[in-house]
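Hey L., structure's done. Input below.
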Amino acid sequence: MNIRIRYFGQVAELTGTNEEIKNLDIGCDLNDIESEIRSKYELDNTYYRIALNQNITDNKETMLNDNDEVAFMPPFAGG
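Output:
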């Protein structure tokens, strides 16, 4: 299955890209993709939030589906 991964702010700077497409095995969840991205780009000391299909989530056991969009976003401030 194909997953679109988008990066914003400092995360985009650290990865050197704003977006990529990953081909993952069926049955992967947000934990799986986060582990792969943290390892690939050495994001261990970087704080970010994850959004799945434009909804911020803390449930990293959410299963991914073909054509989902996962976004890694820095904290936002303002009002």
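The radius of gyration is 12 Å. The mean pLDDT is 93.

-- N.
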